[in-house]
Specification:
Trna Endonuclease, Chain: A, domain 1, 8 strands, 228 residues, single chain, 8 helices, alpha+beta, globular
Length: 228
């Protein structure tokens, strides 16, 4: 990973005005507006120590309510399959996430793309709570191959501008608000049943298409609240 792209992401998450403006130069107007939200609620972003510490990623993004270890990858192809060293890195991120109750992230930068060229993925862990537990519903995990192996597919990730809108908007800052938006925008094909019903069926998991539509609805609601 070139330090050039680490520095690019670091400046965006830290809310450095020149860094943000450089990245959004070819973005659409809505993407620019979402990306600029980081200026109001920036992260302290530091490079992770590289002295044999596995699982810390390349960057640590810290704020009063959140902390993300971030592994940064840049490719010319839209897919990156994990093997050898990159597989070991992923496994170490899982271990540290489980050990410290964190949500490690991967930031995938696709070279030669206009607009928002960053995509965000989360490393799957089983013990998240609080705000991270809410965010887990919206940040996509790694896709899997037919054999069940994790890999990066740029088109399956969350655009960086949407990630920033999720974690930096005033509405998204409130985990209660985020939870209520989730409930309000989740499609349902059954009538509401009383809480006391003993045989309430489990709601079927969302298909990828419905999940994407729900996520878009949440972001639209956040944008509406900011403008009201």
């Amino acid at each position: 990973m070139s330090s050039q792209y680490e520095r690019e992401l670091r400046q965006v998450l830290a809310g450095v005005p020149n860094g943000v403006e450089a990245v959004i130069r070819s973005c659409s107007v809505p993407e620019k507006e979402r990306m600029r939200l980081v200026s109001d609620r920036p992260f302290l972003v530091v490079r992770a120590a590289g002295s044999g510490m596995e699982g810390t990623g390349d960057l640590l993004a810290l704020r009063g309510d959140l902390c993300f270890p971030i592994e940064v990858k840049s490719t010319k192809a839209d897919k990156l399959y994990l093997s050898g060293r990159t597989k070991d890195q992923y496994d170490a991120m899982v271990n540290e996430g489980e050990r410290c109750n964190l949500m490690p992230l991967y930031a995938h930068r696709l070279k030669g793309v206009r607009g928002d060229s960053w995509r965000i993925f989360r490393v799957e862990t089983s013990n998240l709570s609080g705000r991270l537990r809410q965010l887990e519903k919206w940040i996509p995990p790694f896709p899997k191959t037919r054999t069940g192996s994790n890999y990066l597919n740029w088109s399956d990730g969350m655009p960086l501008n949407q990630f920033i809108s999720l974690v930096c908007s005033k509405a998204g800052a409130d985990s209660t608000t985020l939870s209520s938006l989730t409930a309000r925008t989740t499609p349902s094909n059954r009538k509401s049943l009383p809480d006391t019903a003993a045989n309430v069926p489990r709601q079927a998991p969302l298909t990828p298409a419905l999940k994407a539509r729900t996520q878009t609805n949440v972001l639209a609601e956040l944008a509406r609240r900011r403008s009201s």
